User: What shape does this take?
Amino acid sequence: MRDEINVTLWEADLIEAYRPIPRRQRLSILILLLATTLALLIVGLLIRFPAARESLVTSPLAMGLVGAIMLAVTLVVALLIVAPALRRRAARNTLETHPGMRDPISYSFDSEHFAVRSTYTRADYPWTQLWDWRETDSVLIVLPTPRNFYLVPKRDVPPEVLARLRERLGQVRKRAGSAPPF
Assistant: This one.
C-alpha cells in the first residue's frame, strides 16, 4: 500500500525545522553542573588567596581575560535573544528566494521507498539510504543527508498516515549517532 501526503509549506514550518535539536536533559544538567563547579572553584580561589584577588585587580593580563570572558558571555546571551528573529528571517528568505518552495509538495511512501515530488524536484529514496529523522509538535523532518531535509507539516496529515510514516522511519534510523562527514 502506498501512502501519499500533499502539503504546502508555511513560514512557521521552516522556523520549526531551523530550530536546533534539543539537548538531552542529562547533558544539560551535566553542563550546568560543570559551569557551576568551575565558577565556585574560581570564587573559592579568590577568597582563599589574597594574592589572587590583588592580581585580578592589578594585572593587565587578568583584567584582559575577565574582559574577554564578559564579552563572550554577552555575545552568547545576545545570540540567544536574537535567535528566534534570525530563524524567522531565514524561513522567510528561504520561501521567497527558492523556486517552488511555496508550491505544493507531494510525499509518498511504501514499504520500499520514500519519494518526494515538487515543482522542480523528484527524488526517490530507499528507506535504508535515509540519514535520519526527527519530529516536533508541528512537523516531521526527514533527513536524506546530514545537510538536506524534507518537511512534512502535520496539520493536514491524517494521524494513521503519520503513524505509518513514523513506523517506517523508526525502522531505518541507523546513523543518528554517527557524526556527519565534513
Summary: The radius of gyration is 24 Å. Strands lie at 3-7, 105-109, 113-117, 122-126, 132-135, 139-145, 148-153. The first strand starts at residue 3 and ends at 7.
